[in-house]
Amino acid sequence: MAAAPAQSRAEDASSADGAPGYRDPDSFLVSAAGHAFTFCPHGPDRLKALVEQIDGARESLRIFYYLFDKDASGTVVRDALVRAARRGVLVDLVVDAFGNDAGAAFFQPLVEAGGRFAIFSPKWGTRYFVRNHQKIVIIDGARVMTGGANVSDHYFATPAENGWCDLSVLIEGPVVEQFTRWFGLLRSWVAGDAEGGTRQLRRLRDIVKEWDGGDGPVRLLVGGPLVRKGHWAWVFRKDLVVAKRLDTVSAYFSPPRSLRRLIARVGVRGEARMIMAGKSDITAAIAMARLVYGQLLRAGVAIFEFAPCKLHMKLMVIDDASYFGSANLDKRSFRINVELMVRVEDAVLAARLRAMIDHLQNASEAITPVWYAKHSTPLARLRWRIAYWMSLADYRISRAGAG
Length: 403
What we know:
Elements: E1 28-32, E2 35-40, H1 43-56, E3 60-65, H2 72-86, E4 90-96, H3 108-112, E5 116-120, E6 136-139, E7 143-147, H4 153-156, E8 168-172, H5 175-194, H6 200-210, E9 218-223, H7 232-242, E10 245-250, E11 253-254, H8 257-269, E12 271-277, H9 283-291, H10 293-298, E13 302-306, E14 314-318, E15 321-325, E16 329-330, H11 331-335, E17 339-345, H12 347-362, E18 364-367, H13 369-375, H14 378-400
Parallel strand pairs: 3-4, 4-5, 10-12, 11-16, 12-13
Antiparallel strand pairs: 1-2, 2-8, 3-6, 6-7, 7-8, 9-17, 10-14, 13-18, 14-15, 15-17
Helix pairs in contact: 1-2, 5-6, 7-8, 9-14
């Protein structure tokens, strides 16, 4: 599997948000642990790779997305799926009810071409707050594209065009079989739920609890509502307990207090660097993150806020283990949403991803103790705390509906 061709970065020479000289990294290929990983940090590369994979499918396309817009990019992707269905490819698309801005009518051409379309969690109620946050495209059972990017112009544009900083990864190797099995379990749940089955959230929790992503160097880890042991975050915590180096890129940062303590301990005994959002699609997300900067800075954690554009990437590197997928370091990803993270244990890959994080750091503002003392005024802290309280209300509503 070859890496997507590098595109001209001339359009990135100056960000519309005032970060001159920033350019998205080129796509790059890393072979690790019997797998090929093509990382696409550049928005146009992501769209090009996605459409190429759909157009190259010969047998099946199994797709799960949180958000699917009916804008220019969404139309391009939908039309590629329609073409695939017309040439006899089994196309099975599931989108989240909350994230589906396109509406069912937008996907009718796919259904008319012979494809399948379904909505995750179509019923209203407190359980509606549990979201499928995953992004999965499985091609012929042989390759999978995953990461943080949804289907919308925001995720495929350049920073100069108000595009978002994100990451998609095309994977070829044995872990694709795990993705196919996971998709099958969720697809069966969606079918039963839409038909009014009684399993609902309890069955969804059981699916997550019983999931076994293996114990090799490449693992598919998942998460779901109110599941702790076996959850992707459970494995992440175990890595943090013994970690000597941590590097993260996190669009949304409001994890439980216990995880913040673990991160702080890494800063005390080793090295910890965190790239946070300086611009976001959710203004409150920046406030929630800033509320806890003080604790981390006192522990020696290096914090940076990404400046060129809105940040949406989800990437964590702990010693030689790399995590990438759909999950943020926030309470929703830890305790509510259905999420997935790929964990790869490989020193070469970890070093290459840290080099990409270096690139983001160079375009970020350092959050120093002096910066924090200046900006954490009583009024600012009140605003930050109000944003945090609102996030807790969202969590408690979701928890009530998952019982």
